[in-house]
């Protein structure tokens, strides 16, 4: 069974009950642009050093928002290109949640022309987000 979900399939799943897009990018990435109706629970955040560090309480944060695995929806887990979401999906599946990884992340989703909500920063350009 594949746990990778192509964007078109993900969009179809999200239009049916019991499916939620879980964006695991950082809060600032999510605030800039995201899939409409998605929830943001970061799996990694900017650390004190270089790069990103895992959010230790990621699974607990999901549980606080969506409940125990037997009560939660199926998650379409996404990030920018699909690597962080693969890690997040694995952590969720390890404790019993139903989750699939958005293949290619939000960059592929956007490149396919699927809907994105942008937050226009003053003096900013939404096209700059994908450079």
TrEMBL record:
Annotated Rhodanese domain residues: 15-118
PROSITE patterns named in the record: RHODANESE_3 (PS50206)
Pfam families: Rhodanese (PF00581)
Protein name stated in the entry: Rhodanese domain-containing protein
Organism: Triparma retinervis
